[in-house]
Amino acid sequence: xxxxxxxxxxxxxxxxxxxxxxxxxxxxxxxxxxxxxxxxxxxxxxxxxxxxxxxxxxxxxxxxxxxxxxxxxxxxxxxxxxxxxxxxxxxxxxxxxxxxxxxxxxxxxxxxxxxxxxxxxxxxxxxxxxxxxxxxxxxxxxxxxxxxxxxxxxxxxxxxxxxxxxxxxxxxxxxxxxxxxxxxxxxxxxxxxxxxxxxxxxxxxxxxxxxxxxxxxxxxxxxxxxxxxxxxxxxxxxxxxxxxxxxxxxxxxxxxxxxxxxxxxxxxxxxxxxxxxxxxxxxxxxxxxxxxxxxxxxxxxxxxxxxxxxxxxxxxxxxxxxxxxxxxxxxxxxxxxxxxxxxxxxxxxxxxxxxxxxxxxxxxxxxxxxxxxxxxxxxxxxxxxxxxxxxxxxxxxxxxxxxxxxxxxxxxxxxxxxxxxxxxxxxxxxxxxxxxxxxxxxxxxxxxxxxxxxxxxxxxxxxxxxxxxxxxxxxxxxxxxxxxxxxxxxxxxxxxxxxxxxxxxxxxxxxxxxxxxxxxxxxxxxxxxxxxxxxxxxxxxxxxxxxxxxxxxxxxxxxxxxxxxxxxxxxxxxxxxxxxxxxxxxxxxxxxxxxxxxxxxxxxxxxxxxxxxxxxxxxxxxxxxxxxxxxxxxxxxxxxxxxxxxxxxxxxxxxxxxx
Length: 659
What we know:
CATH superfamily of the largest domain: Glycosidases
CATH topology of the largest domain: TIM Barrel
CATH class of the largest domain: Alpha Beta
Strand order of the largest sheet: 7-8-9-10-11-12-13-14
């Protein structure tokens, strides 16, 4: 990916490193190994021979992960700080920035979730099979319409430790410090990862990550006491249930002393949880938190909780309100080592969504803002979609006047807060299925570390690191494609943030009414007069009231709301005039034709870099751009045809719509 060891070695071949550490730990040993074994550079035991000195200075900064780099020195407040400084030194050296920087992460927890299953499949994975689980050498992760876990009849662990070491390096180089290994929908033998003999195998993975400053977490099945403990209940207030979890957690720390904790999806989409026993989420989370307290472990509790049996007939039902209604009344009720993991938007990583109103409203509960790198709804690493601009718009959105600092400042224990994302890697040779999708992986980490970076800066860094062998003109061409790709995908997808119009289950390709009469609560309510979801207080679901008053007023008002947000909040007629001066129906037509045109241009630009980028990368991206064009054309044809047939209104430019 973005760490070209041969290029680094060539640049630093004349340097001699010296490590000045009073004590050794797994991270300092990893640093030595990175210098000698990974890069093949010189490491001396004599300070006077060194040209670059690495040292720990616990007075450098109050943040233990802070670093300072100079031309001949890399310092950190702790061994982790030195590790981050080392990779920052390499980054700045490669892209020819001044070797002078003092930096500390702006988010305490910078976490990656995996949705990997123990048979090697990856739920919503688009880059091959799991790097953790499955048969060694296998790599078919085709979505066959079901995520049920199969019995693979062998060791469930892939045991590809070379790849895991590479992965740990990539994670640490962008500042990631926590990872959960398995799918939050915990199925089959995945439930047993927390007990022997599986936890011992997890410890082998955890040791690798620990040496890169990364804590390992596991997702758990709420019904584990019943499934593997053979208890009659999983009620969080029952003594035998609490004792069972306490023993399991105690054993985990005997095996993995620096274990991070659990990630929990409960009472959501059919998953079990405390609601089964008449208990609330705070009672469920706090039961686990109590067992973790002695070990400083964390309980990360997902707020993706909603009624997945919604009746489409009732237009007052609103899935967007679910997380707020479930968790806002519990603000201040969670233990200090519980963190709520909250999706950035109120539905589900959509093409465009407003900020989840829990951010800014919650004042007494630790929080993680959740993103999705794996592009489930954003092209699945077939269609180009550099999503960092969308993510940055979320963290900079001000609800109750705390843009960017909302998560940290509203968490009672700021060290138990941060950002988390579902990652997009697998066993594909280029890790992400589409070589250019690596930019989102890199971008998430850099965004976590420095919230003040913009999407252009992050992309420029990634391009210079990843395509260091090509000239600036070619890099600029790739930059031009990627920086506009998030907007392009939005143009040919569901219009103006209306929501879900994709193929059910698979979530790739158009199916305008695919979810319209289903149970999942993702509706667009198009009819012969107009389209959109009325979420106003005046006539709709009242969702707008969940924001602070000035934001609520903006979303409530047709005069103030931005065109791009319109259909998420309002049901409007096709002849309604937008701020852009065009009718709604003409805007829908224009945007979809424009989206197709953009993809056609991407193909032309990519063809112009043939011979400049390596052949594998060229062919990989070219193949996916052709698939993207087919997808964009299908979206354009189906959406425009659908709305023409609904409205009976012609495109004023006379372009082809299938009437």
